[in-house]
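Q: Sequence in, structure out?
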Amino acid sequence: MLKYKDAALPAAERAEHLLSLMNVEEKVGQLVQPFGWQTYENNGGTITLTEDFKEQVRNGGVGSLYGVLRADPWTGVTLESGLSAKEGAEAVNQIQRYAVENSRLGIPILIGEECSHGHMAIDGTVFPVPLLLGSTWNVDLYREMCRAVAAETRAQGGAVTYSPVLDVVRDPRWGRTEECFAEDPYLIGEFAAASVQGLQGESLASDSSVAATLKHFVGYGSSEGGRNAGPVHMGWRELLEVDLYPFKKAVEAGAASIMPAYNEIDGVPCTVNTELLDGVLRKQWGFDGMVITDCGAIDMLAAGHDVAEDGLDASVQAIEAGIDMEMSGAMFGSYLLQAAREGKLAEEVLDRAVLRVLTLKFKLGLFEKPYADPQRAERVIGSAEHKALAQRLAEEGIILLKNENQTLPLAPGSGKIAVIGPNADQGYNQLGDYTSPQPSEKVATVLKGIQARLQNENRHVLYAPGCRIKGDSREGFETALACAEEAETVILVMGGSSARDFGEGTIDLKTGASKVTDDSWNDMECGEGIDRMTLGLAGVQLELMQEIRKLGKRLIVVYINGRPIAEPWVDEHADAILEAWYPGQEGGHAIARILFGDVNPSGRLTISIPKHVGQLPVYYNGKRSRGKRYLEEDSKPRYPFGYGLSYTTFAYDNLRISRTSMTVEESALVTVDVTNTGGMAGSEVVQLYISDAVSAVSRPFMELKGFAKVALEPGETKTVSFEIGVEQLQYIGRNLKPEVEPGQFRIHVGRHVNDTVSCELTVREAE
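A: Exactly. Output:
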């Protein structure tokens, strides 16, 4: 037996041996990742591999494929032309079998798939978007979701996913805000570690695990003007303390792969930032996994950033900086072989990248188990258990922003209900970006959720869309107003859409991102490539709401959207407001259960909602020196970080700390009693913030350093504890190293950043 085929040997040893057997064409082949949906043709359920793919396999091989099972406007794969759960597994097996049996060394292909909030394939469970997942403040539940996503993806043969997204949101005008967990690095770090643990499981070789790819490394959420992939103006201290923090937590959790961001930082594109890719990632953190580019990132070096003369120069710069594989494979596939033959690419640099790719394949067990189990795929994907999990996540992440005079929950005798708005019954609109097309019966819209909830009650539900998300057409106003006039309660389902249009002109054919052109039209106002100048409702949605308000009916607003909405009129005039973000396929049921009191809302904001777009940036953990107000308005957000209402009330009492003075080497325990003082069971998110009174480097006024979601019955009290030590007190000092500075700290515990009780802690030098 050849050494690399011996499963008893360590992955690194097997990879070294296989590398020694490879020629330069085979080495380069391992570093390219063509688009997977272009490797086959589906003719009425019969899969035929393309001649181009077969030729690539024979001429050196294909290291990886991107999006074999991806379905969306970019791929052109629709519900009609796409593959079912079982068919997808069979197609992957056919691709994999050809590669293994028709390449000299029989190296299996690494199948990479998008799984930000569910596998982006036909039949996959569509969970809520990360912005809602973060709003659950329930790390354990999210970890469980990641296990489900990994199981669905691996069941079809996918072995690596391009998630989680760990970007820290600084400007919510950015279209990819929905893909992120929060504006706070600590909270993102907790979800980052849980993501790696959930996706990768106890062993990468498990048939329920996939390799996690952390993205986008780094600073991607701090782009100039909130424009996607724009330059980032950030010093090293902030980079280390804020944007790099979640990535570090995920690397410590064992992440197998990482993806550099498109953007540049201080003039250096992340794709060729050796200080980040080698200095921080590998030397400081000890990361030993694979680095893969984002799609088209190497092209941008020569046409966008303009730091490379041409494609060959860009490719060599990238691999020398630490890139191991290129998504799309266009540049590496075109130029690396030439660079190696002309002596422009050192053999040891090429070998270093290939070794990392091969090592990951061995760790994933692909050489022993290259094929999926179609029967298992059919059983696992879209299962009833995963569907129930999707609903529970939505229920825990939806946020009650306003509830004037206890408008919610709706009482049994509250009469006719009118459900109005462009998002009331548009299933695709509630799923978010990076979602495959769905059959209408699979997605529970708000209208369907309410109808299902009231099917046993003698209550009539009226419906009218009223208007579109975008555009100035008011032709639906008359019908909507007639519905509202007939009802006692009006539920307005407004917001945004990240539903991609199947028109070719609205897609960047290189990267798959949506793009805005002067003549493009669809309702998409959020998602990758869709950045906005304002945070107001698009189109005539606000006008429709104002007309309905004149009727004097009870008015409940449900926002379904991918970024914060700043509409002062709605905040002032609606009786109740629910922020549902993009709640996934079961979102309608979750919203209905909250509206009627079957579920007590427990979601809390992980991103501040401003009064006006002109207040940006408005994230809570800005510096103390940033000023207090504008001429027209103060700088405080409408709804602060950590905010969210409940149908019950909670009281905080008896805050205590185990010691009021300690050395930098010691720790203290902070405890607080939390009591449900209302009449309904509910969950409170107890949040710990820390302030450093005086420091050598200016600091934020408050920083999140702990949280716990606590379920309480009426009248029940629970004691919540937080340990405070080096990790909670340290910051990046003037020497760009973590340090705990002796002095005075204030410890805050409460329901959100602006509603806490506090105590003092003195930290002394070590004795």
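The mean pLDDT is 96.
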